[in-house]
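Following up on my earlier thread - several people asked me to post the actual chain instead of describing it. Fair enough. Here it is, all 281 residues.
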Amino acid sequence: MSEQGELARRFRELHGNGTIIVLPNVFDAAGAKLAARRGPVALGTTSAGICWSLGYADGDRMPRAEMLAAVARIVGSVEVGVTVDVEGGYGDSPGEVAATVGSVIEAGGIGINIEDAARQAGTGDPLLPVEVFAANIAAAREVADSAGIELTINARTDVFLANAADDESDRITLVIERGNRYLEAGADCVFVPGAVGRPTIAALVSGMRGPVNVMVLPGLPSVPELQELGVARVSVGAAPSQASLALLDRIYEELLGDGTYELMLSRPLPFADAQQLVLRG
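Reply from S.P.:
Thanks for posting it. Predicted structure:
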């Protein structure tokens, strides 16, 4: 088995084995190297972070080729496996999604995040029809199986982010209905960003016939608490990218306002360390 195949197999096996997966989300090679040296089981990319770093808005606006080029740099910079955020799959049909997933595998990825948010304006529904998204998942699974890679498919549903139901109870019901359908179609895990309360998370874990992934947002319980609730995976999404941009904004505010450098010089990574970070491996 190839190194990629072994990394993919091990990562997929971790889902649902009772140990929570804490997944740092990265957006460039240097950041990937920083995260990897802390010993995570894998890394995830953040589409938003990569898009912003290259001058695009998030939401399937970045050309697939540019995203995959960035992903390939990240994958090639670390020895741990990398699961790739492919947004909605960079296409409206199962065939286009299959092409994206095939390219992710060629780039060395061991998993994907794919989301059910509707991108076309004027549809009236913030989410893709369940059967449409399930077909995309099935196409992704078929490509991975054909390539002999145990790709972890993390099916993201934006029910909470899009307020796709009237109240919390209805949102929980809708997530469970959609999530179980996605698992039947070939997904390995259901990603529910926006679910942060303990009762909500407990209900999702109870109702889902497979592992549940949540995302770090204000109010989310700690990792040990999430493990007690039965959560299989926690991601940080675009938060590191947002935090980095906020720090840069404060640095430039000080520099171009007061003309001082205290924040910028307070805790920099030494130049030699940064050089060694990217030269090593």
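The first helix runs from residue 3 to 14. That should answer part of your original question.
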